[in-house]
């Protein structure tokens, strides 16, 4: 099932938090649409020298949000905050039982949790100490802008992989 792409936030929007939240949702949507455009084999195959796969990227971005918002901003205890990378190689890893459907559901669940965290705070709130940060915690604004740039980079990477796999960049 294809849906209309979620566009960027409206230019007339004046609330900075709503703009950043809208940008994150725009990138989340672009990520999923590009993954949907790939075949099942295309999601598990690496087309780049570093060896990452589109499924590995999906899992990575799930963990990125978890690390920065749950463990980082809220200082919630999380199990295995670096579970997206192989401990010896630092390469994104996907286990045999992590299908696209499983990883997509985890990603969507994490996005819901991330939205809840962001909705309960303001941009100038400072991350709690004791989770990811023991000193010099960033503001929510800093974290959200970091997430936007992380998504923009990785969705751009995925554009290249989709183009190599299909001959176009998809939606």
From TrEMBL:
Gene3D superfamilies noted in UniProt: dinb family like domain
Source taxon at top rank: Bacteria
Protein's name according to its UniProt entry: DinB family protein
Organism name: Mumia zhuanghuii
